[in-house]
Specification:
300 residues; mainly alpha
Length: 300
């Protein structure tokens, strides 16, 4: 496996494995309750009947990961990126969807009823979920220019999250992911591409453990909390993908969306071998991801 393929594979599996790892403890905000009920989360768990994802099984994706898989399936089928064509796939997800439907998705579904151009109905959400879905786009467009990757990432995000905060985060994740799969250094890349405000927040809690740091930053869905938390984990545990993704899960809150973003950064930095083999083996979407990578790795 050449270095680019290794990093592409790491970025893709890092994103989905981090989401799946967090799914069993998603949206638990009491860290003591999380530990008491689940211990240290080192393997996939079913969320359970009393969770926001009562029908999900261990190794599944969360509702944001499912949207990212919808994007991957679209790119696999169409062999192109076109936001207006993809929007038809995204809209087609929901009539029979058997899991949590988030506020940004509900608002977008309502808005597009009044739009001739379905790409213009996105909510005004400032949550990290929108930009966190872009792993398949970065891999698919890895032989394109950085500016093309950024453009596509922003287009994907704005379909459902039409806010300056979401656009800024999509731009950062696209630039960082693109540079990292092409061999750039993690810390240099974060310093060059991440929003200054988010880096400052992350730096302010670097001496804290993950639960305390993310507790201070805020464990919820908003970019104002989640993006600094992602940067904190990437800086603190940059050379150890496994520990970073476990610490993200253990910090609770919206660990799934944070994980989708964090897994891209560290998977791309450290490659596929940095992700535990049992996470890859037990991920429900592994066959789908492998086929996508086989088609797209190192193309061009």
């Amino acid at each position: 496996m050449n270095d680019l393929t290794n990093k592409q594979s790491g970025l893709l599996f890092g994103s989905y494995c981090a989401d799946a790892l967090s799914l069993g403890v998603h949206w638990i905000y009491d860290s003591q309750e999380l530990v008491k009920k689940h211990g240290r989360v080192t393997h996939y768990k079913a969320p359970g009947a009393d969770s926001y994802h009562p029908h999900k099984q261990a190794g599944d994706q969360g509702h944001v990961g499912d949207q990212s898989l919808c994007l991957l399936t679209f790119l696999s089928r169409e062999k192109m990126w076109d936001p207006s064509v993809f929007m038809e796939d995204w809209l087609g997800m929901w009539p029979n969807y058997n899991d949590y439907v988030d506020g940004a998705s509900k608002a977008t579904l309502a808005n597009v009823q009044n739009q001739t151009d379905k790409t213009q109905g996105g909510s005004d959400s400032v949550e990290i979920a929108g930009p966190a879905r872009i792993a398949p786009l970065i891999v698919y467009l890895s032989s394109s220019s950085e500016s093309e990757v950024v453009k596509a990432a922003v287009e994907q995000t704005m379909l459902t999250h039409r806010s300056k905060e979401a656009e800024e985060s999509a731009t950062f994740l696209a630039k960082a992911g693109y540079r990292l799969i092409h061999g750039a250094n993690l810390l240099d890349t974060l310093n060059e591409t991440a929003p200054e405000w988010a880096l400052q927040k992350a730096d302010s809690v670097l001496s804290e453990n993950a639960v305390d740091a993310i507790g201070k930053l805020g464990p919820a869905c908003s970019i104002s909390s989640a993006l600094p938390a992602v940067l904190y984990l990437a800086i603190k545990h940059g050379g150890d993908t496994e520990t970073a993704l476990i610490e993200n899960a253990m910090a609770g809150g919206d660990n799934c969306a944070r994980g989708l973003a964090l897994g891209m950064l560290l998977g791309a930095t450290n490659g596929i071998s940095s992700i535990p083999e049992h996470w890859i083996a037990d991920l429900k979407s592994t066959k789908c991801l492998d086929q996508f990578l086989k088609t797209n790795s190192s193309k061009g």
